[in-house]
From TrEMBL:
GO cellular component, one term: plasma membrane
Keywords, alphabetical: Cytoplasmic vesicle, Disulfide bond, Glycoprotein, Immunity, Inflammatory response, Innate immunity, Isopeptide bond, Leucine-rich repeat, Membrane, NAD, Receptor, Repeat, Signal, Transmembrane, Transmembrane helix, Ubl conjugation
Subcellular location: Cytoplasmic vesicle, Phagosome membrane; Membrane raft; Membrane
UniProt family annotation: Belongs to the Toll-like receptor family.
Protein name: Toll-like receptor
Stored PROSITE patterns: LRR, TIR
Disulfide bond entries: 320-349, 399-421
Transmembrane segments: 555-576
Single Gene Ontology MF annotation: triacyl lipopeptide binding
Length: 725
């Protein structure tokens, strides 16, 4: 139901809008006209933004069908006339912005009488809006916020704002204060919070008779981008006294065009700043600062003030006498100023700020932690100290602090280690955004520890922090934590450990994903807790990451793989045995050995006519009959016998191969004993290889006795063929 059409260079409201649209943003376009039919089908529209267009005409019934509209922004257009007919059906409208148009008045009749539920109203412009009349706000009884931009206001009809019985927050843009008191008289009894903007109070004069007898309800008064003089400042102080309900005053981005000489300005009749308890000053500009008086004439006015904030105003010193006059002060914020140890010594003098509980010195010029602690020993009631964003760099081994210190902020001070300098009474410690790589301090009363944006690798030891309930340790380099570590913090209620580089191991994921109660302890869980490794889950939320079985059960997987390999080897062995795999391996080895030598031995290397392969059990017949017969033949044959001609000490396999290769023929004396001999089988194996490799007829078979053909293994196919002949 959300339609975003801002900054699209549209010159008219798009056609085709339906009842499904609930929010329509057409701001920052070039629309000039809103017609009766443009929005008639948007009956469920709740939010309509037409800001910063060029609209000069809105037809009377343009918004008639928008009975559910709650938010309407027509600001910064070119509307020169406003009509009550636009709003007559907008009964549930809560927010209406008409700022920055060209109208001079709010129409001839009451614009807002039908808007009974209106809570926020913004009207006026910086140039042409000059008149506020009695009927302008008729019908409005309660507003949470009313903003009136009337820098050139010339006419204010008395009681124009009295019809609004209750205004929580009124923002007035007035260039001159001429009509300010007239407006104030009408709203002083119905307003909670008044904010005055962009006003030059040089000519402001407070008339005591105007509101002295009225019942006032204003609690807070804010001056934003307002200019004062010494004289007009005194008039404002008078206002504080007569508008008795004011408890809080704020000056934001204001300019004091004076030298602070209040001695001749009737301040002696004013004892206090009314009932003001909280004074806030931000970005105060004093053009004649180097001529400025010491403000001693207004010291006496500060006795009842309980909270003071002077921020980003180049304060380098609070005089001792002023500090001693601030007898009710409980909270002092001097952030973003120029305070140093030298000036702090004068400010925190004896009897200064006797009831001060909270002191904020963030982003000043402090450099020594040890000296800062010593200078604050005069503040007996001090419990909370913020000295963050100062350049301490290091921390001494020992320090002195006020005895009631409970909260200390040392964030962004560039310290790289913590020592026993910290007070043992601390309940809250903030050391975020430093260079810490460990935390090993014993702080028995510490309840909250803020140590984000450092370089810690693990959670602190729980035994050092027995009552810790809140731990914020995000943006460090922690890669894991365990259930045991969390359980050791017996009182821990909140842990913020997001933004770290977690190693999503199986144990860590099992713990993080298996603990339902973890979500109640971990802040920003699960979105801020993401894996950094392993690489395939990097960037995933810890809650969603999943690892494979092999990553989480490695021992079981290794055992299974080993068992599978053992079974595979066993199966391979059985197959090798059944399919003569060993023989093929031997043949392959023999083939490789043979390939290292010349394919055919040179003639001069042939030493024997035949190599005789026989079983030792047939040696009698071979040696005494066959060898004798052949070697004494004419011409005699030269035979190679293993008993006689093998080289002693040489590997037997090499002897066999060399003898066969150095012989013209190989004689096999086949018998039952030959088939049973392993060495005879090997000689038969290599000879069989030679038959294949050299394609010759080098084998001679002699059947010493009849043997079954099946006794010759089937793998010796060529030898079996020779036997068949």
């Amino acid at each position: 139901g959300v339609c975003d059409g801002h900054s699209r260079s549209l010159n008219s409201i798009p056609s085709g809008l339906t009842a499904g649209v609930k929010s329509l943003d057409l701001s920052n376009n070039e629309i000039t006209y809103v017609g009766n039919r443009d929005l008639q089908r948007c009956v469920n529209l709740k939010t309509l933004r037409l800001r910063a267009n060029e609209i000069h005409t809105v037809e009377e019934d343009s918004f008639f069908h928008l009975r559910s509209l709650e938010y309407l922004d027509l600001s910064y257009n070119c509307l020169s006339n406003l009509s009550s007919s636009w709003f007559r059906s907008l009964y549930v409208l809560k927010f209406l912005n008409l700022l920055g148009n060209l109208y001079k008045t709010l129409g001839e009749t009451s614009l807002f009488s039908h808007l009974l539920n209106l809570r926020t109203l913004k009207v006026g412009n910086s140039n042409s809006f000059t008149e506020i009349r009695e009927k302008d706000f008729a019908g409005l009884t309660f507003l949470e916020e009313l903003e009136i931009s009337a820098q050139n206001l010339q006419v204010y009809v008395p009681k124009s704002l009295t019809s609004i019985q209750n205004i929580s927050h009124l923002i007035l843009h007035l260039k001159q204060p001429v009509l300010l008191l007239d407006i104030l008289v009408d709203i002083v009894s119905s307003l909670d919070y008044l904010e005055l903007r962009d006003t030059d109070l040089h000519t402001f004069h407070f008339s005591e008779a105007s509101i002295s007898e009225m019942n006032t309800s204003i609690k807070k008064l804010v001056f934003r981008n307002v200019q004062f003089t010494d004289e007009s400042f005194v008039e404002v102080v008078k206002l504080f006294n007569y508008v008795s309900g004011i408890l809080e005053v704020e000056f934001d981005d204001c300019t004091h065009d004076g030298i602070g000489d209040f001695r001749t300005l009737a301040l002696d009749r004013i004892r206090y700043l009314g009932n003001v308890e909280t004074l806030t000053i931000r970005k105060l500009h004093i053009p004649q600062f180097f001529l400025f008086y010491d403000l001693s004439s207004i010291y006496s006015l500060t006795g009842r003030v309980r909270r003071v904030t002077i921020e980003n105003s180049k304060v380098f010193l609070v005089p001792c006498l002023l500090s001693q006059h601030l007898k009710s002060l409980e909270y002092l914020d001097l952030s973003e100023n120029l305070m140093s140890e030298e000036t702090l010594k004068n400010s925190a003098c004896e009897n200064a700020w006797p009831f001060l509980q909270t002191l904020v010195l963030r982003q000043n010029r402090l450099k020594s932690l040890e000296k800062t602690g010593e200078l604050l020993l005069t503040l007996k009631s001090l419990t909370n100290l913020d000295i963050s964003k100062n350049n301490f760099l290091s921390m001494p081994e020992t320090c002195q602090w006020p005895g009631r210190m409970k909260q200390l902020n040392l964030s962004s001070t560039r310290i790289h280690s913590l020592t026993q300098c910290l007070p043992q009474t601390l309940e809250i410690l903030d050391v975020s955004s430093n260079n810490l790589d460990s935390f090993s301090l014993i702080l028995p009363q510490l309840k909250e520890l803020y140590i984000s944006r450092n370089k810690l690798k693990t959670l602190p030891d729980a035994s050092f922090l027995p009552v810790l309930s809140i731990l914020r340790i995000s943006r460090n380099i922690i890669n894991t934590f365990s259930k045991e570590q969390l359980d050791s913090f017996q009182q821990l209620k909140t842990l913020d450990a997001g933004g770290n580089s977690f190693i999503c191991s199986c144990d860590f994921l099992a713990f993080a994903q298996g603990q339902q109660a973890l979500a109640r302890v971990l802040a920003d869980w699960p979105d801020d807790y993401r894996c950094d490794s392993p690489s395939h889950v990097r960037g995933q939320r810890v809650q969603d990451a999943q690892l494979s079985l092999s990553e989480c059960h490695r021992a079981a997987v290794v055992s299974a793989v080993c068992c599978a390999l053992f079974l595979l080897l066993l199966l391979t062995g059985v197959l090798c045995h059944r399919l003569h795999g060993l023989w093929y391996m031997k043949m392959m080895w023999a083939w490789l050995q043979a390939k290292r030598k010349p394919r055919k031995a040179p003639r001069r290397d042939i030493c024997y006519d035949a190599f005789v392969s026989y079983s030792e059990r047939d040696s009698y017949w071979v040696e005494n009959l066959m060898v004798q017969e052949l070697e004494h033949f004419n011409p005699p044959f030269k035979l190679c016998l293993h008993k006689r001609d093998f080289v002693p000490g040489k590997w037997i396999i090499d002897n066999i191969i060399d003898s066969i290769e150095k012989s013209h023929k190989t004689i096999f004396v086949l018998s039952e004993n030959f088939v049973k001999s392993e060495w005879c089988k090997y000689e038969l194996d290599f000879s069989h290889f030679r038959l294949f490799d050299e394609n010759n007829d080098a084998a001679i078979l002699i059947l010493l006795e009849p043997i079954d053909k099946k006794a010759i293994p089937q793998r010796f196919c060529k030898l079996r063929k020779i036997m068949n002949t």
